[in-house]
Design goal:
Layout: H1 3-16, H2 29-38, H3 44-57, H4 61-66, H5 69-76, H6 82-99, H7 108-111, H8 119-129, H9 139-148, H10 156-166, H11 172-185, H12 204-209
Length: 211
């Protein structure tokens, strides 16, 4: 895809989603890390209902590291897959406490060493907690980047690399937020609302569907 087309996509997304930002609610990097871990296979809206209770009960990295596993499970149960999530949260918080003085590291290499943290979660934390550019490849970004023709890959790591080549670093974090907003509003998984989409001119999927 040509860079001028990418620029048009970015400009149109910014015009239509001027207030795009992370929809997870958090007060510090550790809270965002936990919230992002909980968001796997769960809506951000549901996560935002659970995290206030979780962080009020366990208000620090140390508190979560020392928490009773069953108590964590009981609180985060509505987010699904709560057994694995609870174990990962407790282990990752213990690692932060033991290895990083209770602080969340601000680099990808250290973040992905934590239990339950992959590149997607790490890039969310880097972009929204530390202001360090990162491309988050969630289901919306994977779907829409392919539909637009920005990638032909299905593997999230390869999609991330493709998008990094196309997008200027200062747009990486914002692009993810705008694409997620677009996926929720128009470019839906099962029934994309192509007729009302402002990216028809740039979209490979739309053009192929009209052939």
């Amino acid at each position: 895809m040509k860079k001028e087309i990418v620029q048009k996509i970015i400009e149109k997304l910014k015009k239509n989603y001027p207030d795009s930002k992370c929809s997870l609610e958090f007060q510090d990097p550790a809270q965002l890390l936990v919230a992002t871990m909980l968001s796997a296979q769960c809506t951000d809206k549901q996560v935002n209902k659970v995290t206030p209770i979780l962080f009020e009960t366990f208000p620090s990295v140390k508190a979560l590291a020392d928490a009773d596993l069953e108590e964590i499970k009981a609180i985060i149960r509505p987010t699904g897959f709560y057994n694995n999530k609870a174990k990962a949260i407790k282990k990752s918080m213990k690692s932060l406490q033991d290895k990083y003085q209770g602080e969340v590291p601000d680099n990808l290499d250290d973040l992905v060493k934590l239990d339950g943290v992959g590149r997607k979660t790490a890039n969310v934390v880097l972009g929204d907690a530390f202001g360090i550019p990162g491309i988050v490849v969630d289901t919306h970004v994977k779907r829409i980047a392919n539909r637009l023709g920005m990638t032909r890959n299905e593997n999230p790591d390869k999609i991330e690399q493709d998008l990094m080549k196309l997008l200027p670093p200062e747009k990486w974090t914002l692009f993810g937020h705008m694409i997620i907003d677009h996926g929720r509003a128009i470019c839906k998984a099962r029934k994309p609302e192509c007729e009302k989409c402002f990216l028809q001119e740039e979209c490979r999927f739309y053009k192929k569907s009209r052939m």
